[in-house]
Fold this sequence. Notes:
Two copies of one chain form a homodimer.
Chain A: H1 5-14, H2 17-32, E1 39-40, H3 42-49, H4 53-62, E2 67-68, E3 72-74, H5 75-86, E4 92-97, H6 101-108, H7 111-114, E5 117-124, E6 133-134, E7 137-141, H8 145-151, E8 156-159, H9 163-176, E9 180-183, E10 196-199, H10 202-213
Parallel strand pairs in A: 4-5, 4-8, 5-7, 8-9, 9-10
Antiparallel strand pairs in A: 1-3, 2-3, 6-7
Helix pairs in contact in A: 2-5, 3-4, 8-9
Chain A binds a DNA duplex (22 and 22 nucleotides) through helix 2, helix 4 and strand 2.
Amino acid sequence: MLLDPLYCALVKDRLPGVTVQRLPLYLKCLDDLPAGQVQLSSDELAARIGLNAAMVRKDLSYLGSYGVRGVGYEVEHLRFYIRQALGLNNEWPIVIVGIGNLGRALAKFDRFSSEGFHAVGLFDNDLEKIGDQVNGLVIEPVEDLPAAVADRSVVIGVIATPAHAAQEVAELLAGSGVRSILNFAPTVIKVPAGVKVRQADFSTEMQVLAFYLHDRP
Amino acid sequence: MLLDPLYCALVKDRLPGVTVQRLPLYLKCLDDLPAGQVQLSSDELAARIGLNAAMVRKDLSYLGSYGVRGVGYEVEHLRFYIRQALGLNNEWPIVIVGIGNLGRALAKFDRFSSEGFHAVGLFDNDLEKIGDQVNGLVIEPVEDLPAAVADRSVVIGVIATPAHAAQEVAELLAGSGVRSILNFAPTVIKVPAGVKVRQADFSTEMQVLAFYLHDRP
DNA sequence: CCTTGTGAAGTGGTTCACAGCT
DNA sequence: AGCTGTGAACCACTTCACAAGG
């Protein structure tokens, strides 16, 4: 398997943002394939996601030319190269802040480990919760977050607090050296340049769906 | 306030998809404004979200010309027109399928009502859970879902089940007449044309973040 | 013959720059 | 003087259409 770091860097710098967002979907499709299916075509993959086959081919071609003309793509190869491009063959320590129902669901989500993500800290400011265990991790007070981020080399922080606490937590995370934040709180957070945020809240998604519902034939 | 339906339809048909995705963010920013702030400029709004001011103006101009040159936008007007465009001034009955930690968090999420979304059904296939109450709603068996969708005029279905159940639930929802699905399960679901799906799962988002983490200067 | 990989054309989104109002 | 609204230029993404290759 091709792993030359210089080559990898080149590939990564040329990946359009939209392609990066679709790679996880391709990966999920590969996971859902019937056991024993060894190859698939761009047509097949496109149909599963509801995309144009040319787009799938273009996306995959950014990773290199790993298909076989007249045949298709070899499933295991493709999985490897997509994981490679996304960085899922690495190990990413993460923390989750706010251990309500949502935080608990995230902490227990076990698909995680196979994708390189590994929760190494759960934080909350509710004294009732601190000390409780979830999925083998003890809930710690938010005050200990900065030290934990540094000690445990955390690079991704997940915010699962109520909206009013999100900005403060974001600053705490960014200030502690976290470079990526996944924000589940229904509020827009502001972070220093260099920190990547993704908004993942329920209400944003529902509102987008609502738009496509009303007054349509 | 301008409510002519013909006019509204025209506005809606001309809204680019990306603009629709940003409107909820603008709305959240308005909510976070200090109480008493009565107007704001495109610059101010852009800075909060991390966008170019010209883009904010163009987005808002699709809704009509509601700004005042030399001054800015009136906060309450803007809120009204954005809500109007998204359809949040209507009432949208929704169901949630899969009442684990995540489903429970969604069911309890109370920002909902103010945005026109109203959970009218919670479903699960676990006999242990059926009959339990969450936020005033009784958890019902999935078998009763189609009848409930019809009876209660449900238009949005939220899938919060494990991945292996998602496709089946999606088909059940679509078959019952639901036109929009928000899928939290980490799998790609296939639905008939005319049904809108948004993927909202944790692992997709984390994988995108991972991409931007590795090997960057 | 079938399916990939890819220039070229087409579409859609963003940014610029400035005219138009207040 | 200041900020919106918007054509025009620019850039990014998607789709087409076909050459290349097993």
